[in-house]
Design brief:
Chain lengths: 289, 262
């Protein structure tokens, strides 16, 4: 039973990381009805930006690298929204999907020119490098940190949507964008703001994962598959649903790795199929009208 | 103050507005009568920049509005109260009012604000500035409804809320699209009280309506719109006995009787 506490910490930290990325995707979909494949690129850029900042040399801190990862992604998001997404609001979902997939491919190419085709690794900051003894298991401190960040992001998003004027405006715009515009709000900039927040979260997720796995080209596509499953299970557009979906997928990953190693990936898809068979609009989603 | 000059508008291939010209003077309350499908709502939406006026000119105190997007038209001082139950259903009444009031203040609202008036002050309108307290003093009921979700309000309460939101943006002119639609007679009577109050404050108002009985008591002038063209224009006292108006709005009076039964 030594591994139970480790399994729990592993599941929760994987879920927290997935949640941070998925929350950005679901926020953008909820507010703008845009399915953004390039979300995976923002995640990958966040991770690679961490390796760049940490590679600059001594004196640089991990925390700065974390922030840099998120900011690099946010700037990439701003660029993409203003140049591409803004023209696609009235387009078909398929057109949006293809266009954002094209953006993902372009970002992948640019990424290889900047960071090369090999994989990179970084270490967690010294203060989080060791384990902490909980119930007989040595839980990596970094995992606890990731869980904390996931919880903080969830709380911050909830506060934003429930308590701030920006959040109210966002919820109003989801329901009736035209009335928001005739109330004097520039919808274009509101949407840009949401998209940048979404990209920031993707970058933060990528930066967070950097010390936990190797960073390589291709992680953009693999994360987008995972977070799409997460937000589909949870219900597209629902932040709480993204949290629930992330927990389920985190659990499926851990259980799969533990008990059915050769079937681990299948377990994730199986989870999705079962959930969608029962609730086609996701656990906390609402049926599309 | 608000002038439409030979305004045309299309939905796809359908030529909805075929050269509408009208004017609302400062402090004037003007009605735009017409049946369903006459183009009343399209006229309102075109003024707001939700439809393009092509061709045609729409000006507010000389400022050309006809090429501006909706949020710029709103900031230029046009307050729009759409017809029906168009409130932000998921927000509370208090949040809706606070959102509308947020425009006048600094804070993040200013960050989203592009343009607006040059010195950042609310546009000068009669009786400005409107505050939440002042809206509450006209609509005391909104105080007790502050924590109720806007989607759960009655039709009349939603009209109060929509009017309150529009006023908080300190408009120079208000556009009311079918304010009496779907309201019980007692609430329609209240609605004319509110419009009368605004008129006394010196607010300019353009009302699109079918309900002649309700509207006649509050307006200075009226236009009759039929098939996308202005049929005629007359002062309120001349309109009241106009057989042409009543003939055109036969449907409208029938609908009022329907409303009486609710």
């Amino acid at each position: 039973m030594h591994s139970l506490v480790l399994d729990i910490a592993g599941t929760l930290s994987a879920a927290a990381n997935l949640f941070v990325v998925a929350a950005g995707l679901t926020l953008v979909f909820g507010a703008m009805r845009i399915i953004n494949m390039a979300h995976g690129s923002f995640y990958m850029y966040g991770a690679f930006a961490v390796t760049t900042v940490l590679g600059v040399g001594a004196g640089w801190r991990f925390w700065l690298a974390l922030l840099a990862g998120a900011v690099v992604a946010a700037v990439a998001g701003l660029t993409v929204e203003v140049t591409v997404i803004r023209r696609l609001y009235d387009a078909e979902h398929l057109t949006q999907l293809l266009a954002t997939y094209a953006v993902l491919l372009i970002f992948a190419d640019i990424g290889q020119r900047i960071w090369g085709t090999g994989y990179r690794t970084v270490n967690p900051p010294p203060v989080l490098a060791s384990g902490i003894s909980i119930a007989g298991g040595q839980v990596p401190r970094y995992q606890l940190f990731v869980i904390g960040v996931g919880a903080a992001v969830g709380l911050a998003l909830w506060l934003m949507l429930a308590r701030t004027r920006f959040g109210w405006l966002l919820r109003a715009a989801v329901q009736d964008p035209e009335s928001v515009a005739t109330g004097g709000t520039n919808l274009a900039w509101l949407r840009t703001g949401v998209f940048v927040i979404g990209a920031f979260l993707a970058g933060l997720g990528g930066a967070l994962i950097a010390p936990m796995q190797s960073i390589a080209p291709g992680m953009d596509v693999s994360i987008i598959v995972s977070v799409f499953i997460v937000v589909t299970i949870g219900g597209l557009g629902s932040v709480a649903g993204a949290a629930l979906g992330a927990l389920l997928i985190g659990l499926a990953q851990t259980l799969g790795a533990e008990f059915f190693a050769s079937w681990a990936a299948s377990l994730i898809y199986l989870t999705m199929i079962v959930v969608l068979a029962i609730r086609p609009w996701g656990l906390l989603g609402v049926p599309e009208r | 103050m608000l002038t439409l000059d030979n305004v045309h508008a299309y939905y796809g291939d359908a030529h909805i507005l075929q050269g509408v010209s009208l004017a609302v003077g400062a402090g004037e309350v003007v009605a735009l009568f017409g049946r369903n499908g006459a183009g009343k709502t399209t006229t309102m939406r075109t003024i707001m920049g939700l439809n393009r006026a092509a061709p045609g000119h729409i000006t507010l105190d000389g400022t050309e509005l006809s090429r501006l997007p909706a949020h710029r038209v709103a900031r230029a001082g046009v307050g729009y109260v759409p017809s029906g139950r168009r409130v932000f259903a998921a927000l509370t009444t208090g949040q809706c009012l606070s959102l509308a009031a947020g425009r006048q203040r600094g804070g993040w609202a200013r960050a989203w604000r592009q343009g607006g008036s040059a010195d950042g002050s609310p546009p000068a309108g009669p009786g400005n500035p409107w505050t939440i307290d002042r809206v509450h003093s006209i609509f005391p009921k909104l105080v007790e409804l502050a924590d109720r979700r806007a989607g759960l309000l009655s039709g009349g309460e939603q009209q109060m809320l929509k009017l309150g939101q529009a006023l908080l943006r300190n408009p120079r002119i208000l556009l009311l699209d079918e304010p009496s639609e779907g309201l019980a007679p007692a609430v329609v009577a209240e609605m004319s009280q509110w419009i009368t109050t605004l008129r006394q404050e010196g607010m300019s108002v353009l009302i699109a309506e079918q309900n002649v009985r309700f509207t006649m008591a509050v307006i200075d002038r009226g236009y009759l719109l039929a098939k996308g063209r202005i049929r005629f224009e007359a002062a309120a006292r001349d309109l009241a006995g106009s057989p042409e108006l009543h003939e055109h709005l036969a449907m409208g009076t029938a609908r009022t009787d329907l409303g009486d039964r609710q």
